[in-house]
Each structure stands twice: as structure tokens, then as C-alpha cells.
Here is the input.
Amino acid sequence: MSKATAKDVFETDPLRVKLRAGGFCVNIYNSINQGHKSGKKTIFTGIVQQASPVVEVRNKGRTLELGVGLGDMAREIHLGDSVLIDGVCLTATSFSGDVVLFDVASGTAALTTLGNIKPGRRVNVEQALRPTDRFGGHFVSGHVDGKGEIIRLEKGVEESRIRVRAAANLIGQMILRGSVAVNGISLTIAVLGAQWFEISLIPHTMLVTTLDSACVGDHVNIECDMIGKWVMRLTGAGAAKEDAPETGGLTFEKIRKTLGD
Here is the structure.
């Protein structure tokens, strides 16, 4: 069976997340697709294209300027393009040879590992998905939900295991064998605890990403599965207190209001 392209996912064979309520089904894909076609949202897959070195970190007051040596990839990136850097969606603001410069807002720096990044460190890099690209991971927005800490690391010849401690609100958005992005890498949750999750990695993933140099105590960026967050939002589990429905349960009117139909 041939591998689906992004165009297949976005246009031909939409990803359908159906919530059954009184015989009604809702296609969450529509809201993602509308944003993609309008150019207002950028989607990644968590399939890292390369691990590249940070060559410059400059404090600009409230923001940071991050320079990443992208090699030949730099020629494919244009001013204003979105690029996933260690799981964080950043905008290319200028160029110096094969070094691409990105601005990191203060809020992003505080929420992610980019706030403490130093020159010499490698980061995972992925360009934004195009409609004709192959879709091999899961939907990743580059909007990090929080940081986690590596508390166990077992490197093996055929398989490696990494256990990450995370906040309760992040663990609550995860499911066993569900998807999670760790430093921008699309991974499957192999074991799920009350305060941690564990991922299993094949040698290829370790080789082409920065996880080959990971150590216990390192912090990582975590983005929970986008589809799971939509489901939580629609069912009220992820709504703010003031937005929570007065009565429990999923209704068709609530779905229409959430999706803006």
C-alpha cells in the first residue's frame, strides 16, 4: 500500500475523528483543513529532517535571536517561512549564508527549552508540510504545551527507552499507544504512568535526531496530540472553567459552536 501524501490527508481522504452524540458525527478535520487552505495555520508531522547546530544566541531585550546552521536546507527556506526547531514553530527572519535566524518571543522562551539554549547544541529541524508531501507522522502544530524532564534512559542496540516526567495536565492529555511530540519528534507512548510517560525508539530515530545525545536530567519540549486536544475541548474536559458547559455531555449545538459552523 502506498504511503498517503499530505494532499490525501487534507483533501482526498480527510482524517475523521467522529464523536457520536445522538446519532450525529463531527469531522474535526474540517477546522484543520480550513486553516491550512487559508494559510493561517502551519502543520508539521514530527518527522525530523535533520539535526542542526545552534551557532548563535543573541538577547534582544524581550526576545531572543536564534541562529541555526541548516546547511543545504537553508536554500529551501524563504523569509517568513515557518520551521519547526526542537518542536517549536519559529519564523525565519533573516539569513547569513547557510545560517537561518529566528526570533523567539519571551513567552515561547519561558515555556520551552529554547529559553536556555546555548551555541553548539543541536536541534531537530523540520520544514512545514506542503500539500504534496508524504504524511508519515502525526499532526504537529509547533505550539509546545510544556516541558518534561528525562528521568530514565536505556540505550540499546535494537531499541532505546526514554522515560519523561511531565506535569499532570500534560499526562492527562495522553493515552497509551497515542502520539506525542518530544522535541519535535513524532513518537508513540509505550508506557503511561501517573506522572510520566515512556517512549520506545528504534536506532534510526536515535541516529537522525538529537535524542542520541540525550541524558537523564535533560529537559524536552512536549506537544500533546492535536486531535486528542480537540476531543477534550469538544467534550468539555479541556475547557476553561468559564467556558465549561452548564450540563454534562456532548451535544450537537456544542459541537457546532466549538467548530464555528
